[in-house]
Amino acid sequence: MSPTFCQIILLFILPFASAWRLTFYSGIGCRGQRIAIRTPTQECTEPSEGMSATTTSVLVQKEPGDLDSEIMAFYQLSVCAPTPFATSEGGCVRVSSASSFRGYRVATKL
């Protein structure tokens, strides 16, 4: 029995799928009001309007299938460059130290 078109496509997509879960909070230590929940990708993502100004910390959670060689990276610029001001492999990360962050993405550990 030969594989279907969908099965072939899944073979190429699944190794690159990322299911990280980010929960944005207004308070320090991932406390306070929950602002948003997002599933980031390797593409640079800008937080929605107002989200970056009100977020103080982010709970970073790896999901099944996420690679050990990946981290979450947070940037001051919306182009996710030059270098992240905060990174995390999981847990709570403070992002307010950069006045307000402008981009985030899944990155490869160096």
UniProtKB/TrEMBL annotation:
Keyword Signal: yes
Keyword tags: Signal
Region forming the signal peptide: 1-19
Protein name: Secreted protein
Lineage of producing organism: Eukaryota, Fungi, Dikarya, Ascomycota, Pezizomycotina
Signal among keywords: yes
Domain of life: Eukaryota
